[in-house]
Amino acid sequence: MSALSIEGVTKSFGGVQALRGVTLSVEAGQRLVLLGPNGAGNTTLFHAISGNILASSGRVALFGEDITRLPPDARARRGLARTFQITNLLPSLSVLDNIRLALCGADRLTFRFFKGMASYRETTSRATRLLADWGLADAADRTVRNLSYGEQRQVEVVMAIAAAPRLLLLDEPTAGLSPAETLGLVDMVRKLPRDMTIVMIEHDMDVAFEIADRVAVMHRGELIAEGNEAEIRANKQVSDIYLGLE
To answer: How far, in Å, CA of 53 to CA of 161, rounded?
Structure first.
C-alpha cells in the first residue's frame, strides 16, 4: 500500500492554476524529494496534502484512506506531520517548551491556566529524551529566538517528529542555512527511522540526492519527471529548467 497517493490534483487561485493535474505515489518508508524552482507548485502541493488548502479537484489518500476534504488536524491524527518554509516555532519560549507543546498537541492534552507545563512530568521526560536523541540537549533551556537559524530548523524537525508520524513533509528545511548547517540537517534527516515516510521539498540537486530514494521534479504546477539520480540528471527538460533555458 502507498503511504501517499495523489491523483489528478489541481488547485486554482482565481485565474492562476497553481497545480495542474498532479499524480504521484510514495511508497511506505520511501524518501522522495520534490525538486523545482521557485513557483513550481511544490509548496502548494504540500498545502493540499496537509490540508492547509483544499484541492480544487483530484484526490489525496494517506495509507489508502481518502483525506482530500479533511482538515489539517484530522490529517495529523492519521499520522501526517509537516514543517514549513518559514520556521513555525514560538520564539519567546524555550526549546524544551516548544517540544513539550508539540507532544501535548500530538497527545491532544489540554492545559489549565493555573497548572504549569513542568507539572506534566511524562511529557517533560519525553521532550527531554527527544532533545537528547537529536543532539539538542544543551539547547533545552535556551529561548528559541536566541538560536541560530540552523538550530531553529533542527528544533522544528524534532517538533514535527515528536508524534512519531507515519508521513513527514519537510518544506525546504535547508533554505537559508550555511553549508555546515545544511550538512547537519541532511544528516539529521538521513537518521530518521526508515518506517517513517518522508517527502521533502528541495531546490539544490546535490542536497536532494544525498537524501532521496527517488526524485520528482515540478515545473509550473506540473510533475515533469520522476526517477533516480541518474535518470534525473540525464533529463534534458530538468537540465534546461535548472540552467534557466526554459
So the answer is: 22
